[in-house]
Amino acid sequence: MGKPFTAVTPATGWNPRYTFSAAVRAGNLLFISGMTAANDQGELVGEGDIVRQTEYIFEKMGRVLEAAGASFDNIVETTEYFLTLDGYAKTAGVRRKVFGDAPYPAATGVLVAGLIRPGALIEIKATAWLDGTEAVS
User: DSSP for the chain?
Assistant: First the structure.
């Protein structure tokens, strides 16, 4: 028996050397891996600027959603890892732009001592519901 999920990989923005998928689809759920603001070359976008890093993460996440035949309207939950409590407040405006009007997805903010990517101020992972959508191979 094979794995109970299929990998979802965007056309651009995912380094094949990673040992994890950009996202996996299991049934009607899409689990999007935690992302920092690293670009296709592995360089950090928005050094020292949590708002820009958050915007870039959501740009990357949008490519993953598109590859799954979905959009930000399909996101049902996010988990955001922050280095500072001040960073949490600064990203609210970005979330409003990305998710539009309420109702918003469920969210958990976690204050952490550090992230694996040097210079990253935030990492975001998400879960989406893909009712009636088909994954794009």
Answer: ---S-EEE--SSS--TT-SS-SEEEETTEEEEEEE-SB-TTSPBSSTT-HHHHHHHHHHHHHHHHHHTT--GGGEEEEEEEES-HHHHHHTHHHHHHHH-SSSPPEEEEEE-S--SSTT--EEEEEEEE-TT-----
pLDDT tens per residue across span 67-80: 999 999 999 999 99
Q: Measuring CA to CA, how many Å separate 30 from each of 10, 27, 34, 121, 137? A: 13, 8, 13, 25, 14
**Global confidence as pTM:** 0.90
Torsion, Cα of 90, 94, 100, 106 (10° steps): -60
Contact of 62 with 82, CB cutoff 8 Å = no
Per-residue pLDDT tens over the stretch 36-58? 999 888 899 999 999 999 999 99
